[in-house]
Design goal:
Helix content: over 70%
Number of strands: 0
Distance between the termini: 10 Å
CATH architecture of the largest domain: Orthogonal Bundle
Largest sheet: none
CATH superfamily of the largest domain: MetI-like
Radius of gyration: 23 Å
Order of helices and strands: HHHHHHHHHHH
Number of helices: 11
Shape: elongated
Length: 266
């Protein structure tokens, strides 16, 4: 069974790599056919040279480090505040009824709309980016955690109370385990929103970072640098999603019995 799983995994990698290779080949073939200069239509070789230049000058590692720090801080603050607020509101029926419409309204407003206002309020720089990312993560986590808290079957709560569970035991042993899958889903959604918000915020309010690299390349007519930034952005998200977010979400839903793993079926 394990060999079959490894074979399927290897097949997916081979197919994915083949798709990337075919795309690069088609891109290179199209360069002479399009017949435009590197500013308008850079080829893979131009992008590779721009990547090597950014790496040799130390610009790319610095920008990656700055973007990673901003992203991690914003996600951590937003997720923590979202979970705490959701528990405070979700465990109080009156507060839940009062704040539910406002939360749904704020959740619907995209992060890009807030960044210009944050710039007006807090100026350009780290503070604006951190607040913007925290906001972006806060509402998806809050919204989904509330859904998870509300979905806890009353029979579980009543059974725990009948057995003499304290408030803390009720929260830690019943409510949080039931709400955890929704919480993780909200975290993953918020992390995705925050990644896009980070790039836009760095375009507007920063002087370093991958978003700034994309903006700077376009402003200085160095399109190859812009494409380098776009590629790094896509690779960074694939890394975050596949290495961190998907495994956590998968482990959570498997742990609490929402899906049945192949090993369990056997």
């Amino acid at each position: 069974m394990s060999m079959a799983i490894i074979t399927r995994g290897q097949a997916r990698v081979v197919k994915g790599t083949l798709g990337i290779v075919l795309f690069i080949v088609a891109w290179q073939v199209s360069v002479p056919l399009v017949g435009l200069g590197p500013y308008f239509y850079p080829g893979p070789a131009d992008v590779l040279r721009a990547f090597e230049d950014l790496l040799a000058k130390g610009i790319l590692p610095t920008y990656l480090r700055d973007s990673a720090g901003r992203y991690a801080a914003g996600v951590l603050i937003g997720a923590t505040l979202g979970v705490v607020a959701a528990l405070l509101i979700g465990l109080n029926h009156t507060a839940s009824r009062i704040f539910a419409p406002t939360i749904s309204f704020m959740f619907a407003i995209v992060e890009v709309a807030w960044i210009p206002i944050f710039v007006i309020w807090f100026g350009y720089g780290y503070t604006t980016i951190l607040i913007a990312l925290s906001y972006v993560v806060f509402f998806p986590v809050l919204y989904n955690t509330l859904l998870g808290v509300r979905s806890v079957p009353p029979v579980y709560v009543n059974a725990a109370r009948a057995l003499g569970a304290s408030r803390w035991q009720l929260l830690s042993n019943v409510i949080l385990p039931c709400a955890l899958p929704s919480m993780i889903t909200g975290f993953r959604v918020g992390a995705g929103f925050a990644f896009r918000g980070l790039v836009f915020a760095e375009m507007v309010a920063a002087k370093t970072g991958i978003g700034f690299l994309i903006f700077e390349g376009a402003a200085n007519q160095e399109t190859a640098r812009t494409i380098v930034g776009m590629i790094i952005m896509g690779l960074a998200w694939l890394f975050i999603d596949n290495v961190y977010l998907k495994p956590v979400e998968r482990a959570t839903v498997e742990r609490w019995g929402l899906v049945i793993t192949a090993q369990a079926r056997e």
